[in-house]
């Protein structure tokens, strides 16, 4: 329970007055080991998704990390972000909209996973990512029960939308580390999505804003709007 003071501090810093049950790391980790039921990505309520974690994807041993294999794939430009003034906005259909500094985000439990990154352009790489779980961030924002999708905006103008089930999968991280080191700028620092259940183009780098919504907009993603598949599951 040594994390409790820092969590409280996180709440003070963020100005939260109420705290969802999910915030208590104990409740969360109790259910995390349980393999979820049938995967029904689009029909499950927020509550069901957050309390019944989905099936975990097997990970790779650290010895299989391929440090040279992850190709930097940036279509526009590499944005300059000042980590001291950076804020992650979480808004939309939520009871508790958030504007979080990196220091506040680092108060959340840190997770690492070694997974395969797959780009549709024909390459893949085993990478270890470290960061906070999207499900913890979503829980903090207290989504309304009709939320079904998450939109991600990036500092380079890239944008993406995910089904909520995939966004709150326990292995979907907002990563600030790659292969045990601080995330390099070209790979999306300070925060990028990383998940073993989606293709590379879903995994937004330089995420600045997460908006939880109940309907997909006409605009679904940088590549999707040019004809790529939206779900893009692995
Ligand atoms: N903001 C942003 N995110 C992005 C991209 C991008 O150009 N801009 N490229 C995507 C693609 S196609 C892939 S394969 C991965 C590549 O991540 P990497 O550059 O860290 O290898 O980032 C994804 N996320
Ligand atoms: Mo990609």
UniProtKB/TrEMBL annotation:
PROSITE patterns xrefs: PROKAR_LIPOPROTEIN, TAT
InterPro entries: OxRdtase_Mopterin-bd_dom, OxRdtase_Mopterin-bd_sf, TAT_signal
Gene3D superfamilies: Oxidoreductase, molybdopterin-binding domain
Residue ranges of every copy of the Oxidoreductase molybdopterin-binding domain listed in the record: 78-223
Domain of life: Bacteria
One of the Pfam families matching this protein, by short name: Oxidored_molyb
Protein name: Oxidoreductase
Record organism: Chroogloeocystis siderophila 5.2 s.c.1
